[in-house]
Amino acid sequence: MSNKLKQNLDLALSNATRLSNKVLIDGKLTPAKSSKKIKVINPSTGEEIGEAPQCGKADVDAAVISAEVAFQKWKKIPARERGKIMTSAARKLEERREEIETLLALDTGNALRTQAKPETAASIELTHMFAGLSGEIKGENYPPNIADTIHYTTKDPIGVVCAIIPWNAPLFLTAAKIAPAIVAGNTVVLKTAEQAPFCALLLCEILQQELPPGVLNVISGYGEECGEPLIQHDKVRKVTFTGSFSVGKIIAMKAAPKLCPVTLELGGKNPNIIMSDADLDIAIPGVIDGMRYTRQGQACTAGSRVYIHEKIFDKVLEGVVDKLNKLKMGNALDETSDIGAIISEEQLKRTLYYMDIAKKNSSTKILHGGNQSKGGEYKDGFFYEPTLLSGLPVSSPVCQEEVFGPVACAIPFKSFDEVIKSANDTPFGLSAVLWTKDLSRALQFVDEIEAGFVQVNQCVAPRANVSYGGIKMSGLGKEYAFDSMMNHFTQSKTVLINRGKSKLDV
Predict the structure, then answer these.
(1) SS3 12
(2) Which whole-number Å values give the CA distances from 216 to 209, 228, 267, 356, 425, in the listed order?
(3) What is the pLDDT of residue 503?
(4) Which of 52, 144, 284, 302 has its CA 20 to 30 A from that of 38?
(5) Class of the 271-456 domain?
(6) What are phi and psi of 259, to 5 degrees?
(7) What's the rounded Cα separation, in Å, for the pair 218 and 201?
(8) Residue 54: helix, strand or coil by DSSP?
């Protein structure tokens, strides 16, 4: 083990130990009321690094009551003042950036250099952005339709927000939900992902240094005993969730009886389309970036259906394989690693399940990867090679369902109409990418593709001030931009005031 790796590991483990079995309620980091615990595993080694509380209804009630009490005061603080407070909190994050990013890598198995550091930077940027937009929270004035009447709207905070995040990008998604909610005047109860709870808790603990007690609360636990009572709590007025479609559907149903509004960012099976005229110098690396191989394919935007025009099919695959051969997989905290580990044994088994389907099909060609990495530094961790397949029928579950692992399927096509039809033939509609030099074709793609996040000649991850969200079964609502703060975390009030006549005029 190198000295730098040991330093990174020691720093991350010290925070994991300190945060073990803790919740954040009413401004204090304290043990949970529940005595049940969830083991937290380092994906790179398979070793236990701490425990997260398996919270139940008692912890949910405590967190929500704390948030409700805080809301009565927080909502009265002027928006610009709330923005200043959040700006100060974001600066605290900058001061402790190294702690945050190393714990993120330990928690998730995502490589420190290629994933954890950029995610930490993006989370800080997002927090700063929403803080700076605080002064733009305002309603509208309307020309009066009734004589001597003033007509305007206000944008008011909703109340207690329930935020539920997944494990694949826990830091960025925490910031994406709590920053706009809090700046808009709401208070938050965050339920962390049980597989990666510590990095989100650390971020919130740091923010809490500047926020009044109760504005931000953090609990952890499983859906049935923690998530469900949180969603259904009568004081929770808004739910925002990122995760799978199956869970998102349940959340929407649980929130429906009290007409609680929900924002859902769900899964995808996203097309990455390369036309015959594409600039391969950017399209080939774009397949690597689009598939999110350096996050082990664990991204809802992963372009796992790689459509390549038949004229350039072999050439593109050769280029992609060449670049995959140059990527280094290893311990997430090793700064020489390009690729880290899959989050858990359960998620690794999911990848193995889909690969078993692929390998049983006689037409399948494994162009790269296709194996679990074992032995040596991979002995006890959850590692799987970045995998590229061809030859599978489009109807295969591997081509139709979200694997959420490092597995992409290359699919040849002959015409634009053919590939658009195939790309849209899915219940999902999250993201889509096209590579072409033809502007007319690019604009036609934008018109016809069924996706909420569309890119041409690039494949970047969602970021601050880029409105992001899916359609169809990929979700409800947009996030990461000013409109998300206004649409999801404020409620409109219409005001009509009859001016009457002044007594001075009588």
Answers:
(1) helix
(2) 11, 19, 27, 44, 41
(3) 61
(4) 302
(5) alpha beta
(6) 55, 40
(7) 7
(8) coil
Using DSSP, state whether 45 is helix, strand or coil: coil
Residue extent(s) of CATH 3.40.605.10 domains in the chain: 3-266+474-493
Q: How confident is the model at residue 504 (pLDDT cuts 50, 70, 90)?
A: low
Average pLDDT over residues 444-461: 97
To the nearest 10°, report the CA torsion of 310, 311, 313, 314: 130
Q: Where in the chain is the domain with CATH 3.40.309.10?
A: 271-456
Quick one: the chain helix, strand, coil %, rounded to 5? Answer: 45, 20, 35
pLDDT for 146 beyond 90: no
Q: Which amino acid is at 155?
A: K
What residue spans of 75-153 are helical by DSSP H?
Answer: 79-95, 97-108, 117-132
Q: What is the pLDDT of residues 199-240, one digit of tens each?
A: 999 999 999 999 999 999 999 999 999 999 999 999 999 999
Output the CATH code of domain 3-266+474-493. Answer: 3.40.605.10
**Token pair 């890119």: residue:** 455
Tokens 């905070």 map to which residue?
157
Q: Are 432 and 270 in contact (CB under 8 A)?
A: yes
Q: Among candidates 219, 142, 207, which has minimal Cα distance to 175?
A: 207
